[in-house]
Amino acid sequence: MTMTDAHYKAPQVAGYADVPLEEKQRLFAEVKNDIRFADYLYGCYECGICVAACPSARFYDFSPRRIAQAAAREDVELFYQQMQEDIWECSQCFSCLRCPRGNNPGGIITIMREVAVGNGLASAREALKAYSRIIYKIMSTGTQVSPDMLQPDAFPDWGPETSDVSAHLDLWRRALPPETLHTTSTGWAVADKTLIELYLIWHHTGALDMIADVDPGLHAILAEVMEERLEEEGIEL
Ligand code: SF4
Ligand code: SF4
Fold it and tell me: Do 208 and 149 reside in the same domain of the chain?
């Protein structure tokens, strides 16, 4: 008997057989329909140059070539597995841009991560769990990790100087020449106008909504902080 398309069943990837094929196809289509995708994948020679350049491939069972291949072959089973596992090993350094085919495997992974977060995939929830404090800091203050997060208890592997630095944080920060760095609760002082603009960007682009699926508690806190501040400015969303 000849195997027709109707008889053919795509091989199931261990651990994800319970996820319907239609769902995997839907997620793949969401990645493929992203406006950046066409610029990130032109096919794949399978030459492995991206793997040789990739720092994550040296330390993990991870390969940007496999990502590009799965996308080029539209292998939705493997692609789904990669969205649940591999993509979180990428350090987003973009060394893989030296691909002779002009691909951007790191860029494909960026889109895959965004789709994983936007759809509340288990891998996204797991990957972002450890970063909720940092996400809160960045999205509430408009700047990155702040000096007062430098606490010996929070990060024991930061070494013995952490205690001394955190005990005299105000002093160290005031000793820095730029005034915008004389702050301990934010990386640097963020102008009110900038913060309001960031809040509006995160609202209007849906960046805040993406957090709702992966961390509802964090989303609720951030939404409240932002709405309160915007209301003070007379801005209703
Ligand atoms: S993505 Fe580019 S560098 Fe990597 S295997 Fe394919 S053609 Fe080679
Ligand atoms: S962006 Fe990701 S896939 Fe590309 S070289 Fe860096 S770690 Fe590897």
Answer: yes
Which of 92, 97, 98, 103, when mutated, tests ligand 2's pocket best, judged by the most ligand atoms within 8 Å of its CB?
92
Which residue range forms the structural domain that includes residue 207? 130-232
The domain total for the chain is 2
Q: Which residues of 125-143 are buried (b: 16+ CB within 10 A; e: fewer)?
A: eebbeeeeeebbbbbbbbb
- The CATH number covering residue 79 comes to 1.10.1060.10
pLDDT averages per 10-residue partition of the chain, 237 residues: 38 72 98 98 95 96 96 96 96 96 98 94 89 90 87 75 87 94 92 95 92 90 96 89
Tell me the CA–centroid distance for residue 237 and ligand 1, in Å: 44
- Ligand 1 near 50 CB (within 6 A): yes
- The answer to whether residue 157 sits within a structural domain is yes
66 lines ligand 1 (CB under 6 A): no
Q: What pTM does this model have?
A: 0.78
**Is the minimum distance from the CB of 107 to ligand 1 under 6 angstroms?**
no
Final residue in a domain of this structure, among 107, 127, 147: 127
Ligand nearest to the CA of 99: 1
Judge if 136 and 168 occupy the same domain: yes
